[in-house]
## 1
Amino acid sequence: MSALADPTRRAILARLSQGAATVNELAEPFDISLPSISRHLKVLEGAGLISRGRNAQWRPCKLETAPLERVDDWLQAYRKFWTGSFDRMDAYLAELTKAPEGGSKQ
């Protein structure tokens, strides 16, 4: 999911995980223009990660969790693989670092 590749978009999603926000509120912590923030929001909206409502003159953005839940489900198999791989590597490294039996030869 390329929408998650950009750190600014990930930061926007992190902010939206705390609740809905306006474009101005989302732009506040960044040193980029409002049009740039809007482009990031369009990418996130296109990926289905956020939705925009209408409330009088402003359009609050809201995090949509269903796509992220699907990604998490997909990643679960890889988590199991990597956890098993790291466990095997830990065991191998522990074996390598054991002191040789019978003392050392000089």
## 2
Amino acid sequence: MTHTMHEFDRYEDVRAALADQALVPELPAAEDGPAGASVAWLRATVARFSSGEPHRRRRAVVEAELARLEPASLWRAAAAGPEQEARVRVVRTLAEGLGMPDPGSVAEAVTVVAGAYFGGEDEAADEAVARLVAQLAPERADEAALESVANRIGLLVQACEATGALVEAAAGGDVPLARVLRDDPPVRIMRRVAAKATRVAGRDIAEGDVVLLDMAKAHRVHPVPLTFGAPPRVCPGRAHALALAHGVLRRPLTDFARLHHQAAPLLLPNAWDHASAALLAAQGFPAIGTTSLGVAAAAGLPDGAAATAAATLALARRLGRSSVLFTVDAEGGFSDDPDEVARLARQLHDAGAAGINLEDGRPDGTLAPVERHAAKIAAVKAAVPGLFVNARTDTHWLGSREDETAVRLALYEQAGADGVFVPGLSDQHAIAALTATLVVPLNILYTPNGPTVAELAALGVRRISLGSLLYRSALAAAVTTATTIRDGRPTDFGPLSYAEVQALGAPEVRR
């Protein structure tokens, strides 16, 4: 039977094809081979080339393997590794992290397998598969155990090909990986085959038809990368691949950045003065943010009106004299001039700040032009590379469409943002859709009526901010205390003692 070849290169069409569950990665011609002894067997047994229940079962193996690894650990291990060819270093670091025996020989064998993984027959690759299975499988392994081993090998091969290609494309410069993924995607053409008849972008696709997706051309006209797929088949190793790439490229990972690349998301409480920051740090929070509302209200100034530059810098200098790891909410940078924003960022960093929040909402209730905000981000990263830039968009607070949010965030991370922030976003489907396309960690503002911390973590959110919630709660508690005493009602507040608060002003060792 003759099957039709369909080609898609329009961004929306490519995205629709990636999201269509009827289209699955095409299995190269040879679909079978001796169990545990050939590339054909490997291809027929891994999650990448399967669908339905076998895909779900095999993907679960890959997800379980990745769940044992913190991206931050892979980043640091890759950065500390020996000088080797990029693909070998990627695979060796991943194999070491997974606890595989003799990761050096594993990496050598995987690079051989990778050369034949996406098609063709190769005797050397077959021999490499057999060596890997002998090395990784238990004695007298049954079919289920061999399937598990095949998917562990497949994970390494995918890292070798895709992550290795990303490292090669980014080598020799400091271009943000988000921009590399858009301009030079490691997989330029994706092939899909229709497991059943479907309709995509107005075309009828029969069962068995082949679909070619031109990723490179699609990305020329749209900034949001599709490199890691689209729901429901988003690459489960996205965070790990990016961490490996950063590490192999020896890009630094600061202590504050590391908190965004761990198994659990960073829960960031926001302080408004030295005392609140010190008390929160004493409760074990690894980092503290500042709240622009709290800083502005305490000074009798409006929030979001670029009126608190001096107060914000003064607070940063006070916190910088303590041992608190902190990031500063700097509104929109208190200027429309990227160079002035960069100068402020340098002052904040010199004061001790580990990060800065920059928002694109303006005092008049509109959004700053996306190019202007991206220019601010790029200027800050050029001036202070070690400062973590969390780029905030106020699209959801100002009623913009979800696609504008995705485009703005993509452009901000391509400008060099280390993280992105969408306050006001609480719809779980929309959050999941964003995390599927983002390259940098997503920050969400916690709200009492929104998703729980556990739900946000499950959606892939890497930082959860409390914003002005604590400050507003503290004001409410103060008023409640005063009115309760005034009105003669019973009191049972349990405040901190005078001595406890007085101790907060004691000199501390500078971080």
